[in-house]
Write a structure and sequence with these properties.
The protein is mostly beta strands. It has two helices and ten strands, in the order H-E-H-E-E-E-E-E-E-E-E-E. It has one domain (26-233): Porin. 15% of the residues lie in helices and 68% in strands. A hairpin with a 3-residue loop joins strand 8 (174-197) and strand 9 (201-215). It starts with a helix and ends with a strand.
Length: 234
């Protein structure tokens, strides 16, 4: 076999593999969803400060308190809709629910003295805080087909988020439930890999970081999202 024939065969094989890689990259609409595990890089100090402020406003003096529970990990989910304009570019929009940071506090202490309790009114206190994040995300995707079924991609975009700060206080006088919501625009970036099934379905695994989610007064920090999802194209 001469060198010209070998070269032509190699060139034909390269063209065939390139065609196979590109043939899966059809443009058009797709929808999907994902399930995720999330972790927020946040300090407990904001929550300890909120607890101290609440106790001062209520006139409560803790005498014995357990170490606060603080969990920055949560499960989440999302729904997406996208349009692939070209082989290497798509736009996506959808809803992301990133779960909540959970803070738990328990104490025994006293309320100010009165006529019936000259030494102070004893009471336990339970304080729970759930700081939840969710919102609409819009992204641009740069896509690199690796083979007919496999692709890798990068993501950049913004999340128009709502941060729900909910608290619950229970003591000898009964429960108090309240909270407030704030809006923020948070940037995000990520990278993922996808695998196509049956020419229509695509399985995805992805890492996303939402930068500085929240605000400095009520808990701000990066949220790392690891997700598994599926899309269906039309």
């Amino acid at each position: 076999m001469n060198q010209t024939l070998i070269r032509n065969l190699l060139l034909a094989a390269a063209c065939w593999f390139a065609a196979q890689a590109a043939s899966a990259a059809e443009t058009g609409f797709y929808v999907g969803g994902f399930y995720s595990t999330n972790e927020k890089d946040e300090s407990i100090d904001i929550y300890n400060g909120f607890t101290l402020s609440a106790q001062q406003q209520l006139g409560y003096s803790p005498l014995q308190a357990s170490a606060p529970g603080f969990d920055t990990k949560a499960n989440g989910y999302g729904f997406i809709g996208g349009y692939r304009l070209f082989q290497n570019f798509a736009i996506e929009g959808g809803y992301m629910q990133l779960g909540s940071v959970k803070y738990r506090y328990r104490a025994n202490g006293l309320y100010p003295p009165d006529a019936n309790n000259p030494n102070g009114f004893p009471s336990s206190m339970t304080l729970n805080v759930d700081n939840e994040i969710g919102g609409i995300a819009v992204s641009a995707l740069g896509i690199l087909p690796v083979s007919y079924r496999w692709e890798v991609y990068g993501r950049a975009g913004v999340m128009f988020a709502t941060h729900d700060f909910k608290f619950y206080i229970a003591d000898a006088f009964g429960p108090i439930k309240d909270g407030f919501s704030e809006s923020a625009t948070d940037f995000l970036a990520g990278a993922g890999v996808s695998f196509m099934l049956a020419e229509v379905y695509t399985l995805r695994g992805e890492f996303i970081r939402v930068f500085d989610a929240g605000n400095k007064d009520n808990g701000e920090g990066d949220v790392d999202v690891i997700s598994l999802g599926i899309t269906v194209k039309f």
